[in-house]
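Appendix C: a fully annotated inverse folding record. The material below is reproduced so that readers can follow the format used throughout the book. The structure is listed first as tokens, followed by the designed sequence.
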């Protein structure tokens, strides 16, 4: 798995260069504006709970890697609750009628973000647990980059609003360690897993796909933030 983890490391460095992550650090912009894209995250934030609960989790299992995956899905299947809380705290929970909210959720502005969980589910649907684990490691890497940046913005906001933000803030960043289970032992264990050539090829493909879908989604959110200046 060493080569796969090395690829993830490389892709993670590239991912961190995306425009949205520079934007999030730009203190000349109102911190609320820097998070103006937050509603666009809805298909991912909500869908990710589903992906963990219904797609990645496979119970019962005797496969030790699937067991690891299952454990991880319990850590990641409920963060959408924090997301909805933060949307409210950010003042982005304006009343919108049902058909308008469906049009937003399923509209053009969130198309790429809708693809994230969908594509990951397609790519991992009949994959071996080790390949799924590679996908999860890649997902964790993207989350680690994004949450590190949003946590800085949330910290600035917290000083102004005296509210704490469980999804975009430090809380989520600390819960997501950037790896499947967070402990060093398990990381070393994963690193030492020997993959066949076929498994390596599949794992590389799934890692590339994960970064591709997240990159496109992040760029879509950047575009949205630029087009939607917040009202003071
Ligand atoms: Fe999460």
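Designed amino acids, in order:
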């Amino acid at each position: 798995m060493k080569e796969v983890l090395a690829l993830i490391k490389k892709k993670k460095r590239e991912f961190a260069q995306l425009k949205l992550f520079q934007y999030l650090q730009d203190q000349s912009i109102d911190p609320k504006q820097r998070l103006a894209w937050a509603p666009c995250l809805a298909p991912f934030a909500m869908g990710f709970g589903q992906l963990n609960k219904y797609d990645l989790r496979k119970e019962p299992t005797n496969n030790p890697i699937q067991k690891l995956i299952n454990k991880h899905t319990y850590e990641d299947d409920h963060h959408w609750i924090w997301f909805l809380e933060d949307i409210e705290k950010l003042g982005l929970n304006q009343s919108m009628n049902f058909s308008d909210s469906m049009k937003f959720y399923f509209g053009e502005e969130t198309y790429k973000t809708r693809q994230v969980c969908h594509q990951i589910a397609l790519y991992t649907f009949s994959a071996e647990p080790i390949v799924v684990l590679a996908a999860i490691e890649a997902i964790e890497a993207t989350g680690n980059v994004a949450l590190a940046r949003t946590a800085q913005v949330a910290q600035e906001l917290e000083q102004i609003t005296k509210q704490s933000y469980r999804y975009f803030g430090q809380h989520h960043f600390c819960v997501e360690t950037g790896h499947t289970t967070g402990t060093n032992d398990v990381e070393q264990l994963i690193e030492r897993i020997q993959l066949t050539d076929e498994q390596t090829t599949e794992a590389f493909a799934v890692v590339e796909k994960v970064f591709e879908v997240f990159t496109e989604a992040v760029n879509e959110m950047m575009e949205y933030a630029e087009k939607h200046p917040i009202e003071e």
